[in-house]
Amino acid sequence: MDGTLSQNDLSHVVEADKAHVWHHLIQHKPFETNDPNIIVEGKGMRVWNQNGKEHLDAVSGGVWTVNVGYGRESIAKAVYDQILKMNYFAGSAGSIPGALFAEKLLAKMPNQSRMYYCNSGSEANEKAFKMIRQIAHKRYGGAKHKILYRDRDYHGTTIATLSAGGQDERGAQYGPYTPGFVRVPHCLEYRAGDQGAPTENYGEWAADQIEQVILREGPDTVGGLCLEPVTAGGGVITPPTGYWQKVQEICRKYDILLHIDEVVCGVGRTGKWFGYQQFGIEPDMVTMAKGVASGYAAIACLTTTEEVFEMFKDDASDPMNYFRDISTFGGCTAGPAAAIENMRIIEDEGLLDNCADMGAYMLGRLGELQDKHAVIGQVRGKGLFLGAELVADRDTRAPAAEKLVQAVVGDCMKQGVIIGATNRSVPGYNNTLCFSPALIATRDDIDQIVEAVDGALSRTFG
Question: Percent of the chain beyond pLDDT 90?
Fold first, then answer.
């Protein structure tokens, strides 16, 4: 840390934070006697707090966001140059970076052709839900309005996105919820026994469960299916063999729009531009946010096929026919300006290949920990998006206690390594350690992460 602020300045910042800032996802009672953690600087894979303590960040900003690492001067300069020239105009008009980023990114998404800008993943998913609902009214007299979502998936923090949330503890105390959202079962093969599923062809079985829900609800009432390509906060769940192909077939069979939530996986996290591209499917709608600009500016996007777009201009004489929606800060030019430079870095530095290579290396290193520590029931993931599910007993697969999982996270923090874990999300199953280091990660970075987890597991579980 370069010490730009004096210790007196930092002390004032800490007191101002304690007095005035309401932090995300944090119980503030402990701050009556303890200081909050304030991150004051970042460079590459590392961050420093107000006390000068250095941490290796293995979760890309805490929530899977800073894909190209900290301290990218070229992104900061791109944002500066753009906002000095033209910082904002409502999304009813276009902008130079908005047009150029849409063209650049959609070239990586062969069946997608249109981009709608907004400013958060939650909002992007709400836009998709609204489109599905409006199509239901335009084409089906309002009947085909139901939206299916999956157990353990997460799509945002608003009331509507919580209505489509498969993490019950995230949504607790915020109901009643928006009607018309229907849950389908998860696809975690490691937990197939809890579902009474067969030991063979689990992927097809899990997809068939979606079809059963569609038939129960009535195919003429279901308009959309919203899924993460790899479930993130619900346990880093990679889909089983045969699952995605069958899901695609089911959506086409019943004329259901397939909406892929790439808020976490999008723009490189799994080793491809998008997670769905790992599975050879063609969604109707894709939402993205976190890694789009690596956190250097707020930006989220919803992309659609041309067919979906055309549904909103097929009768220009109808004053209600267009998508009557706006996102105020979707008109900010800083987001697409940062996103263009973010993409350039990923391409020029070969970060998709690095993500795939380092992800495979890290998966292997976590496998070594699994051989050493009986508490690790399974390691899984794609690219640099990995999880290690902890269990109290490997034979029964009983989940490890959440407080012990969090103790591992805390131990790593003391060692100067920030990792994540599922917490207060899925009742009884908040037992997965989560890793999402930046796409610039090296073998040395991964070794440091794995060694910290190794020590933490030994001290926590013996």
Answer: 94
Query: Which residue shows structure tokens 């013996």?
Result: 462
Which tokens go with 447? 């070794």
CATH topology of domain 84-348: Aspartate Aminotransferase; domain 2 (3.40.640)
pTM to 2 decimal places: 0.96
- Structure token digits, residue 146: 């139901």
pLDDT digits (tens, 9 = 90+) for 104-126: 999 999 999 999 999 999 999 99
Q: Return residue ranges of the chain for CATH 3.90.1150.10.
A: 350-402
Q: Angle CA(364)–CA(368)–CA(373) in degrees, nearest 5? A: 140
Do 339 and 330 form a contact (C-beta atoms < 8 A)? no
Q: What is the CATH number of domain 350-402?
A: 3.90.1150.10
N-term to C-term CA, the chain:
35
Strand-strand pairing, 181-184 and 222-227: unpaired
Q: How far is CA 78 from the centre of its chain?
A: 25
In this structure, are residues 155 and 327 in contact, taking their beta carbons and an 8 Å threshold?
no
Q: Left (φ > 0), alpha (ψ -120 to 50) or beta: where does 81 sit?
A: alpha
- CA-to-CA distance for 65 and 269, rounded, in angstroms? 9
pLDDT of residue 5: 67
Q: In the chain, which segments carry CATH 3.40.640.10? A: 84-348
- Give dist(CA 400, CA 98) in Å, integer: 46
Fill in the DSSP letter of residue 249. H
Tokens (6 digits) for 458: 């030994």
Per the listing, tokens 């129960």 go with: 216
Asked whether the beta carbons of 443 and 358 are under 8 A apart, the reply is: yes
Q: What is the CA radius of gyration of the chain?
A: 22
Which percentage of the chain shows pLDDT scores above 70? 99
- For residues 47 and 30, give the distance between their C-alpha atoms in angstroms, rounded to a whole number: 23
- The type of residue at 440 is I
Contacts of 162 (CB under 8 A, 6+ apart): 156, 170, 171, 174, 177
CA 360 from centroid of its chain's CA atoms: 20
